[in-house]
Design brief:
The chain has about 525 residues and is of the alpha/beta class. It contains 19 helices and 22 strands.
């Protein structure tokens, strides 16, 4: 065994590691991080939500089955690779998809099936609370779900003793602590960035709003306690250890960091927690998160406001649609290639066709497309229809066709980003890119840089994901220097020397994207007509 393997083995045996677990929408992933904050082993479990009684949900049984399976696969991997058993670790962190609705009574019974972020059943509440607070309250936020349940006069409301997120629930059952990281909390209810806690003015407004409903609780009494990164958030209890590791090997007493949401762990994993930095995750959907230097001048329906895990204000632009439509075109091209008797693997097909986009006209030769597989709240569509349009004199060729499909994947995102960068004059030095949009070398970066007119970088570590991000937050809790900020810890311990591959925007391509966006904006009426005519 080499010295490196011996060091890893000793670190595992002596608990000089960190475990991160993240529950995503389709996969639960567990990672083990050792010295240098590098991932040395992982395990995962695939799962899917269910649509029951018009609600997107995951059962408690599936939640724990998935967490246990993912952890068990990690433990098996460690045993196989290093010949040792995990019995302790320096820290554990829990992360999960944000928002949604999990409410419990005094007996800790779940009062309704978990309502996930994916549900769009709180429109009335979302609109009312946005008006009341003068602050954007998206439908997926926990407070919108809670107020909608009140408006619907649901019987369970009077029995609520505790409301939390999925990450907060897992953490509670492992530690007994009703706490939440500030980043995840910012997707439940607005945060006061000065106190780094729930906004008390708005809590009082909410309590006054529902006072006539004779509800036997005050909002502040059913909320979790908000903690910032670096704070100890409890220890693994004996029951929690058995719940996580069904083999019984894992010992209690391990400290846990504050549970966080997937947005916050994504920021950590891409080193995007400093003011004027941001990250963009582009795949089936696309969202950009920009760390702000100051608050926005007013509320925008297109912009969500959340925080970093250490409480800095973040503007989030989220578009429901990104790569799904051009993935469908790729499937069609794959069929054509196969029909010709050729054998071209998927990576080569994508790299070749998407690479051709860089040879296209900067404005896509006058072509227009909408990749709206689903509705798009930024451009005010409840449902969508994928569509490709050209005029008789458009420059219709493969390069321009591929380019317009990449441009339109970012069309709605660009609409929201224009609010930040132009209307609000937000300063953004660099955007860190991750996700499938960036898999073909250089292409996704150049197109994104043209869209946002900001340098775009991709790091190798960006693919590590949120489970790694929450493990880093656990490491920060136990390994930081006194009074060391999260920003400084990440620079010193994790990303020192990691430069990434940065691409600056090409002025001609920026101008071309803006020309395309004029067509995109003007043509929204065509898309709207297509939706209405095909209903």
């Amino acid at each position: 065994m080499s010295l490196e393997l011996k060091d890893i083995k000793n670190a595992i045996v002596n608990g000089q590691t960190a475990i991160g677990i993240e529950l995503g929408s389709t996969r639960i992933k567990t990672v083990l991080v050792a010295e240098g904050n590098k991932s040395i082993a992982s395990g995962s479990h695939d799962w899917e939500n269910s649509y029951l009684n018009n609600v997107w949900t995951y059962s408690l049984e599936d939640i724990w089955k998935g967490v246990q399976s993912s952890y068990n696969k990690l433990a098996e991997s460690v045993k196989l690779k290093y010949g040792v058993t995990i019995q302790t670790t320096g820290s554990i962190g829990i992360s999960a998809m944000m928002h949604g609705y999990m409410v419990f009574d005094k007996e800790e019974k779940l009062l309704t099936p978990f309502r996930t972020w994916r549900n769009t059943i709180t429109g009335q509440a979302s609109e009312a609370l946005t008006g009341l607070f003068g602050y954007p309250i998206p439908q997926r936020w926990s407070i919108a779900h809670l107020y909608q349940a009140i408006l619907n006069k649901e019987e369970h409301v009077s029995n609520i003793d505790y409301i939390t997120t999925l990450a907060g629930y897992i953490h509670w059952k492992l530690t007994g602590q009703k706490v939440l990281g500030v980043g995840d909390a910012s997707g439940m209810f607005p945060i006061d960035v000065d106190t780094r806690d729930f906004n008390m003015r708005m809590i009082k407004q909410f309590n006054q709003l529902v006072s006539a409903d004779n509800i036997p609780w005050q909002l502040e009494n059913i909320f979790p306690k908000v903690l910032v990164a670096g704070t100890k958030a409890g220890e693994l209890t004996a029951d929690g250890a058995k719940l996580l590791d069904v083999s019984g090997q894992l010992q209690p007493g391990i400290p846990l960091c504050p549970p966080e949401g997937d947005a916050g762990t994504g920021m950590v994993a891409t080193n995007s927690v400093s003011a004027r930095t941001g990250n963009v995750s582009a795949g089936t959907s696309v969202f950009a998160m920009v760390v702000l230097e100051k608050e926005l001048s007013r509320a925008y329906s297109e912009i969500d406001l959340v925080t970093t895990p250490d409480g800095k204000l973040v503007a989030m632009v989220h578009s429901n649609n990104c790569t799904s439509d051009y993935d469908a075109w790729m499937g069609l091209f794959a069929e054509a290639v196969k029909a010709l008797g050729l054998n071209v693997d998927k990576p080569r097909l994508y790299d070749t066709l998407l690479g051709a986009a860089l040879q296209g006209d900067p404005d896509c030769g006058g072509l227009l497309a909408y990749g709206y597989i689903s509705g798009e709240h930024i451009t005010h569509f409840e449902e969508g229809r994928p569509m490709f349009v050209r005029s008789a004199n458009s420059n219709f060729n493969l390069a321009n066709f591929m380019r317009v499909n990449l441009y339109t994947a970012l069309g709605a995102l660009k609409t929201g980003m224009n609010i930040l960068l132009e209307k609000e004059a937000v300063k953004l030095d660099e955007l860190m890119g991750h996700g499938g949009f960036f898999k073909t070398k250089l292409v996704g970066q150049k197109i994104m840089a043209a869209a946002v007119n900001v340098p775009v970088s991709v790091m190798e570590t960006a693919g590590e994901g949120g489970a790694w991000g929450i493990a880093l937050l656990g490491s920060y809790m136990v390994n930081r220097n006194e009074n060391e900020s999260l920003e400084d810890f990440l620079k010193r311990e994790v990303f020192d020397g990691e430069q990434g591959n940065s691409i600056a925007p090409d002025p001609a391509e920026v101008a071309g994207f803006n020309e395309f966006l004029k067509r995109y904006t003007k043509g929204l009426d065509i898309e709207r007509a297509a939706v209405n005519n095909l209903r």
